[in-house]
Amino acid sequence: MVSIRELVQEAIASGYLSLEAENQLRQRLATKYDFEDFQAVLKLQDAAMAGKVRQESRELLEQSS
């Protein structure tokens, strides 16, 4: 099982968050996680807001509009 931090690191390194990885993050965040995981998610959120990480889910929404 891939950890929250690993999912975040992969997304930031590649500049892309796939639907699969996003769903895995949701599943992991629905369970108990530690402060370092929480910080990693905040880092991913900042990267996405800054345009450094694209989200497949958002791209699919834009295409369907």
Give the key terms.
mainly alpha; about 60 residues; about 70% helix; two-stranded parallel sheet; single chain
Distance between the termini: 35 Å
Mean pLDDT: 96
Specify the structural class.
mainly alpha
Into which percentage range does the β-strand content fall?
A: 5-15%
Query: What is the radius of gyration computed over CA atoms, rounded to a whole number of angstroms?
Result: 12 Å
Low-confidence stretches: none
What does this structure look like?
This protein has helices spanning 4-14, 19-29, 35-49, 56-64; strands at residues 16-17, 54-55. By secondary structure, it is mainly α. The protein has one domain (4-64). The protein has a two-stranded parallel sheet. The mean pLDDT is 96.
Mind sketching the topology for me?
Blueprint: H1 4-14, E1 16-17, H2 19-29, H3 35-49, E2 54-55, H4 56-64
Parallel strand pairs: 1-2
